[in-house]
Amino acid sequence: MDRWVFDIGLRVEKILGDISREGSQSFQVNDDPSLAPDLQSVIFGNGDFTIGEVDTSEWALALGALYKLTDNISLYANGARGFFFPEIRSVSFNSLGEPQTFKAEIIKQAEAG
């Protein structure tokens, strides 16, 4: 067994977040057609907030093995399943006022040599 090296790693993560978005209104301050449309009106918060909660959990795993053929040559293989959580501030609300799906992006990779 002195020729073998094994690695293993496991991670479990849970995220919970509260989100809120303020509604907006626009007000036309100028109707001069020579001005760009964005300069003709002002958009401001109206004090109406939509609030919600998001949560998810995910796991990651890494496995690796190395076999020493000689003192100078080895064979290896590894594989991993990981994830990225989206930013909570990127979550928007659907037309019913519910937060949209909040799921992790799964990353899988493997290599050998």
Automatic annotation (TrEMBL):
Signal peptide: none annotated. InterPro entries: Beta-barrel_TonB (IPR000531), Beta-barrel_TonB_sf (IPR036942). It comes from the Bacteria. One of its GO terms (cellular component) is cell outer membrane. Keywords: Cell outer membrane, Membrane. Its main location: membrane. It is found in: Cell outer membrane. Residues 2-113 form the TonB-dependent receptor-like beta-barrel domain. This is TonB-dependent receptor-like beta-barrel domain-containing protein. The lineage of its organism: Bacteria, Pseudomonadati, Pseudomonadota, Alphaproteobacteria, Iodidimonadales.
